[in-house]
Known about the structure:
Chain B is mainly α. Chain B has helices at residues 7-14, 30-34, 54-65, 104-113, 128-139, 144-147, 164-176, 180-183, 222-231, 247-260, 266-274, and strands at 40-43, 46-49.
Amino acid sequence: MLNYFGQxxxxxxxxxxxDRDAPIWQNASYWPITLRITPYWSRESINKVAVDSxxxxxxxxxxxxxxxxxxxxxxxxxxxxxxxxxxxxxSDETGAFHFESANVRFDNLFHSPWLNxxxxxxxxxxxxxxxxxxxxxxSGGGYQLFHFIPVxxxxxxxxLGDNQLGVEWMGHSLNDRTRLSVAVFNSVDGNVDLPYGxxxxxxxxxGSQAFDAGKLGVQRIGGxxxxxxxxxxYLTSGGVxxxxxxxxxxxxxxxxxxxxxxxxSKLDFxxxxxxxxxxxxxxxxxxxxxxxxxxxxxxxxxxxxPAGARNPTWSGAFVETHFVYSPQLTIFQRSEWVRMxxxxxxxxPSNLGDIDNYVFGYxxxxxxxxxAGFAFxxxxxxxxxxxxxxxxxxxxxxxxxLLGFDFDF
Amino acid sequence: MRTRLPxxxxxxxxxxxxxxxxxxxxxxxxxxxxxxMGIESHVGNITGHAKAAKTDYRRYCVGCHGxxxxxxxxxxxxIDPKPRDFQLGIFKCRSTPTGTLPTDQDLFDTIARxxxxxxxxxxxxxxxQQRADLVAWxxxxxxxxxxxxxxxxxxxxxxxxxxxxxxxxxxxxxxxVQCWKCHGVExxxxxxxxxxxxxxxxxxxxxxxxxxGSRLKCGxxxxxxxxxxxxxxxxxxxxxxxxxxxxxxxxxxxFYLRSLMPxxxxxxxxxxxxxxxxxxxxxxxxxx
Amino acid sequence: MKNRHNLAAFITVAVLVCCGAxxxxxxxxxxxxxxxxxxxxxDGTAPHMKGIDMSKDPYCxxxxxxxxxxxxxxxxxxGGGLENVVLYISEGLSGAAAAPxxxxxxxxxxxxxxxxxxxxxxxxxxxxxxxxxxxxHNIHPNPNPMTGNIPWNQSQPPGAPPVEKSWKTPEMxxxxxxxxxxxxxxxxxxxxxxxxxxxxxxxTINNVPPGNYTVTAWQEVYGTQTQKVTVAAGAPGKADFxxxxx
Lengths: 409, 288, 246
């Protein structure tokens, strides 16, 4: 997450609002660009991998070795007074590039901090951000609730951890104590060229209020709601679903609370909750047949829901603790739980897909300047999901140990 | 006849050099500064403690203001105006007379307000307690705050009604004390002396331009404007006019200055109605 | 018997002598506030002082129409005498120093320059800044705040009343006007009796009790020089200084 000053700076359109924000005030040799990559050594261990020679068909697999994270190239700033932008070409560890963010924002329209409009591909407005998470490991480094899909569910569009393509109105009080936003975007999970529905949109609404807690610092609490529709029916050509032809929109929702709690300058907590619900069609694996999450045969052409299908729903929460011993040493821990409250099919075990995830680690910056730095990042994470092992459908757990250098220039 | 020598006379022998303009170098050591770690501040009913602000200063302020509070942070070479050297105990935005220390409230307000057209952000993001702690931390850099009391805040009489006569009288004051020498006759900061202005550290500095819509660094209310020219901005060429402008006249000048600013205001409308022209620098005294 | 008499006599004489000496001493102190006099010269050719372009302020040009103003860092007369050198006593003054002199030295802004160029004063002595010009000035001394002298900045528009101030510690303080950037002067704050050389380089420090002292001469470009000098009743100390032109 960003500290309050950083959040306000971002909400102002990367501007200090000191009448010095247009690029003309910057040194001409200054480019607002930063590169980030993390080479690391890791130990990954999964307790059940499908292996032919294993007696049960599954066995533990542990690998160790050096590896590379993807590369983020972050560029952001102002194009002009009150016009800001963020462009993040990002590659995964194989070097395959995509745009993580590419948006322009018109800030402080009519001189009002309540009128800011962003257009393009952007991260959904949550002050607890997975893009700025402190955890990096494979098994449990991300926020499960930001990507949770029930087992067998075909809805990839409800992932609030993925950047989306759309438009966002955002408003805030002058001191950024109150924040509100409404975003409307296509249910394409951020994929360009409208590969899914003809007319399927999602709305994301968020609001928060910060307040002065004296010595403890500024606390912020808020909530969010994501309500959208996505297609379950595609026209086909030669049996192959046609991208962009999706109809038969069914709905899904995610909503919850978020909080940032500070106890002085050194200790803070992030709290995030979610209650999620997908339409029964998605629960029965209708939806994403374009790139194969679901069987292409699951094309809702008959309008008949499979017998017994229900709306899968779940609840979850995570708490992340940061102990900032000094600006150079941060110790962190996160605990996350996801519990299904209704399975898509009554025949599923009631806890199918439940997740427990624990992470802890520390980041140590031997030096920090405003231009470059690196952090010695060490982390251990453990995650368990119920009933999802590949062969026996028993509990699947994995753990990661990551020792890395996180470089940023 | 030799008697015991007091220390100062030996020191006199040592002071053989001209007092050079101050450079950007720190003059106090860390241990000297640390000796004042117990300093407190009092803002409203909040008591701030320097020690409690150590982490916040390290996190947010040290990049410009430096570990020793002398303005020599990492960002010093790249920004203009330069960050303040807290060791000197000289501050622009005060409610107290020239040559005296600001009150804790003055420092508190400056931290929250930031300084427009500079790289000092509006740190209203801190809680009031955190800001009060930071005020105490800012004070602990300068030995002056230990024994020297802040000046007595100037008395500001109640603001009168804006009238056409007052705006005209304000224009007379502007001409009489010759603000236009630096600020220009239209307030555009293009007066005859504007181009050679230097601050106390011999760095070029610009006079405030009333016409460009930027916020005044030391506050935007009428009372703030009153305070600015009556107390002067220490460390800069802007002097105190307390001995030369009577309190009632001062309000007239405030109204006239408002009429020079681009924001719509009663003063601006009235001045337009009056058809007020900029002052004439060549007119003899009293004949504007 | 004889010894006792001698002792008594001795004691009496001793007491008489002591009392007499005390009385005499007092008389010397009361009557003999001595002086130190001398001349300060410049050895060599004085550096050329640049002429000042005052066109920023038409009033300044007008009042200087009949003289050409120059920078005053080194003002040297035809006989080689150096003006504006401050002489003060840097060693030898007793701890019970006299209260600062009660006269009020005046620093005037006249014809857009400072008169005198260097104003010497005692620590704690009240001095006055006046303006004789019909153009606005601001009076802005810039001491080093670390010494205990705090900078201040006051306006002096035409007709402004005098500004009365004093300084806390000895320091050579630069004074300038922000409106007229060529205006440059000094407040020479020293402890104890002082004098400033006149146009011929001559000076007299008055009110110096008899004794042995070190006198320091300070010139803003050439720095300081010291000399030992003895002052006795009726016999002023003499200290001449010569600064070498660079």
